[in-house]
Amino acid sequence: MQEVFNIFKDALDKASLLLENTITVEGFTLTDLDNLKTTIETNKTSINTASVNLELKKQAISQAKLNQIAALESSQATLDQAKNSLNQAEHNLYQTKIELKNKLDLAEIQVKVQEENLISKQTALSLTTAFPRKVDLAILEAQVQEAQTALDSVQNNLNKSVLKVPINGVIAQINFEKAEKIDLTMPVISLIAHSNDLQNNEEINIEADISEVDIEKIKLQNKVDVILDAFAGQIFIGKVVFIEPAETIIDGVVYYKIKIEIITDQFNIKPGMTADVDIYTAEKKNVLTIPQRAIQTKNSKKFVQVLENGNVIRETEIIIGLRGDEGIVEVVSGLKDGDEIVIN
């Protein structure tokens, strides 16, 4: 029996030594470790006590054999109690081993997790310190381009909030107030250009009102002769650059505004000067012409009376073409150069 006590005592000593070399981890605190140590020390004390008691009982049994059977029964009861204590100690030791194993397994798992975290952080550090990859640079460049596009959009919206004119000048008139409904036929702001800008061949526009009868004849880029009262005898060349789509009513008559740009030298031309304009809607050279008043119309056909030796000899049908200034009309067919006609 003493050998049994020695075996358990040796086991408890080894367990105590194992706990002395055990380190605490998350989930297994120093308090848990101390509790295990206390439990083992208690069990060791119990075994030592049981060993001493066993020896005493052996002596008591020897003495009881000499004295009485009753003492033997008492010793047997004490022995049974000691066995029960030993069994309980074994059970406690087994439970302690299981708990210790579970905690050691948990500690190993935590160590493995920490090792994986370390590897992950080392990989991230390598990516941070390594030279950027092309794909990473492409992503960053795309982000920069996206930011630049957003900046350009904001700058464009900001630019749209400012009214700018192509020349230097002075605002001469503001025709509308804030929140007032505007009229498309009237400019919101009138600007007078500085004279130095005009002398540097900045664009000068002339506005003219064209009747609804003639507006269909006028096209963009039509050549225009411009005569200014301030420059007698001098003709400036221009062209039609704008035809207003909406009509303008002047004294109950419908007109359409056009803009004419002077394209020749503009030296000393001032804003507000009066101009006469001749617009070339069509042009032909070396054509046969007659006065409009020589033409008679019958059944939608055009006729003239032709003379020979001063007498009317026939009424001739003609086809007319362009109409010019001062009542001159082009004759496409029906007459020839040198024919004499009657003018009414």
Short description:
With 344 residues, the chain is an alpha+beta fold. The chain contains five helices and 14 strands. The strands form three sheets. Strands 3, 4, 5, 6, 7 and 8 form a six-stranded antiparallel β-sheet that branches. Strands 9, 10, 11, 12, 13 and 14 form a six-stranded antiparallel β-sheet that branches.
Tell me what the structure shows.
By secondary structure, the protein is α+β, with helices and mostly antiparallel strands. It folds into three domains: about 1-130; about 170-280, Elongation Factor Tu (Ef-tu), domain 3, CATH 2.40.30.170; about 290-340, Beta Barrel (conserved putative lor/sdh protein from methanococcus maripaludis s2 fold). Helix content is about 45%, strand content about 25%. It is built from five helices and 14 strands. The protein has helices spanning about 1-20, 30-65, 70-130, 135-160, 195-200; strands spanning about 170-175, 190-195, 205-210, 225-230, 235-245, 250, 255-260, 275-280, 290, 295-300, 300-310, 310-325, 330-335, 340. The longest helix is centred in the first third of the chain and has 61 residues, at about 70-130. The N and C termini lie far apart (about 165 Å). The mean pLDDT is about 80.
